[in-house]
Amino acid sequence: MTPKMNRRDFVKATALGATMATTVGIQKPTVANQQIPSGNLPSKSVGFSEVISFKTPINNPRLITADPNGNIFVAGDDKIICYSRSGHANDEIPLADSPTAMVFSKPERLFADHLLLAFQHHIEVMDSEGKTSTRFHFFPEKSWLVGITVNSQNIFVSDCITKIVYGLDWEGNIVQAIGKGFSRSKSGSPFPGFAVPSPYFALDCDRSDRLWVANPQHHQLVAFTPEGLWESDKTWGKASLNKQDGFTGCCNPAAFALLDDGRFVTVEKTVQRVKVFSPTGTFQTFVAQPKIFDPALRLFETPPSSQKEQKEQKNSSQDPQNQENKTATWKPSLQVAALPALPDCQDCQVAVLDPANRKVFVFREINQ
Predict the structure, then answer these.
(1) What SS3 string covers the chain?
(2) Could you report the per-residue pLDDT of 253-311, keeping only the tens digit for each?
(3) Is 254 among the domain residues?
(4) How many domains is the chain built from?
(5) Predicted TM-score (pTM) of this structure
């Protein structure tokens, strides 16, 4: 583990990261007449079937996670509702504010069997009764925390303003800063940084404590050792407008989750594609037909109505100081959670939150 940062070093590092972590564009595919995929996928391309779906009364559901018993947590507005795998509402936890990210910590991880919530500027750890047991405040004023995960040693949160992932120990001390200007590979090569043009900056940890972070504008999932070293040889992902093994749009994947066997479940906004990749990034299957999700999710951002508004929007998006305001204009994406295998259900299952329709879907992998 890297040494702890004192407040002076942290402020200096954060200022450097915010300056250096500028959004870097990538070259878009140039194949003629390519279209964003829509409609039905070939049935053989879908390797999961729907088990159950249910509505949530939360007006603006944004987040989903699951505990080791298969209970599903949905958060939005100022509450969290806990559902059984069958869709029965077991409990409701009131909140003072709406969280921006949520994860349930597994037994072998830090803060085991606790619910970890990220808010814009702070983190809260909740016990099994829904009471906040720990609260961490140590983030810059302009931060916007949008992702959270945990391994056996650290909590990790992603900040879409500074484009930095912060690692915290169990006391809330920042012990890692991962991003451009901070991270290097084992051979000493500098990490080129994250390109995050919207408030989708997902992350998760696998069973070996490796940290995986979405680099959305580069259409990649980036690997880091538990100590924060960049593993370029394990990083995977590519841009592709209509091929199933790549990610489409300006910045995807918007969210992802790791299954118990190390595979990835990814979500792409606007096209509503939920896919499964092998632990090394090889495409395996789709989870569902995109058409079952609310088509309103395709209207990802309200277009400006005039050339003047277009110019103002462009100028605003290029100003890092306006990133915080920009996040409020983005509409929600599908979210995903991996459900654990249980004695009465050994099949791999995935829960998908459709926020536009206020609906949760549970899918089971089809045994071939």
Answers:
(1) CCCCCCHHHHHHHHHHHHHHCCCCCCCCCCCCCCCCCCCCCCHHHECEEEEEEEECCCCCEEEEEECCCCCEEEEECCEEEEECCCCCEEEEEECCCCCCEEEECCCCCCCCCCEEEECCCEEEEECCCCCEEEEEECCCCCCCEEEEEECCCCEEEEECCCCEEEEECCCCCEEEEECCCCCEECCCCECCCCCCCCCCCCEEECCCCCEEEEEHHHCEEEEECCCCCEEEEEEECCECCCCCCCECCCCCCCEEEECCCCCEEEEECCCCEEEEECCCCCEEEECCCHHHCCHHHHCCCCCCCCHHHHHHHHHHHCCHHHHHHHHCCCCCCCEEEEECCECCECCCEEEEEECCCCEEEEEEECCC
(2) 999 999 999 999 999 988 889 999 999 999 999 999 999 998 766 543 333 333 343 34
(3) yes
(4) 1
(5) 0.82
